[in-house]
Amino acid sequence: MKRELAKALKAAGFPAAPYRIGHRFFPHEESPAWSEAARKHGATVTEYELQNHLQDIKDGYYCPTLPDLIGACGAAFGRLSLEKDIWTARSKDATKVLHAHTPEEAVAQLWLALREARS
């Protein structure tokens, strides 16, 4: 998942699960505890970070897993498909159809579109 999409999910109120070892996130742009590479490309939570940098992790941008994203879409989620190298996420009623290079990005965009439609 790209930083801007993770940031958009956080801004829209995506229900972030508790962080655990192996979870991916993007540190906040201004966090001095992380390298430029980690801020740019994301980082994986280790036991050390959970014990020593939990607030830095929470201040950053959660990268939900595919099951997290599908679950957050709820009953509005229709299906996810792959054609060539493009993933497509559709709402149940097919009014929302989003395309991306990864399944997580496609479903994240679907969740954002569903959220916007409810507003």
Our Rg estimate from Cα atoms comes to 15 Å
SS element count, helices = 6
What's the total count of β strands? 6
Shape: elongated
- Low-pLDDT windows of residues: none
> Could you give a short account of the major beta sheet?
3 strands, antiparallel
Order of helices and strands: HEHEHHEHEEEH
Distance between the termini: 25 Å
Mean pLDDT score, rounded?
92
Helix fraction?
A: 40-55%
Spatial strand sequence of the major β-sheet: 2-1-3
Strand content: 15-25%
What count of domains describes the coordinates? 2
Structural class: alpha+beta
Tag the structure with descriptive keywords.
3-stranded antiparallel sheet; 43% helix
Describe the overall structure.
The chain contains 6 helices and 6 strands, in the order H-E-H-E-H-H-E-H-E-E-E-H. It is α+β, with helices and mostly antiparallel strands. The protein folds into 2 domains: 18-62, no CATH class; 66-118, no CATH class. The strands form 2 sheets. It has a 3-stranded antiparallel beta sheet with strand order 2-1-3. Strands 4-5-6 form a 3-stranded antiparallel beta sheet, covered by helices on one side. Helix 5 runs parallel beside helix 6. The longest helix is centred in the last third of the chain and has 16 residues, at 103-118. The two termini are 25 Å apart. The model has no long low-confidence stretch (mean pLDDT 92).
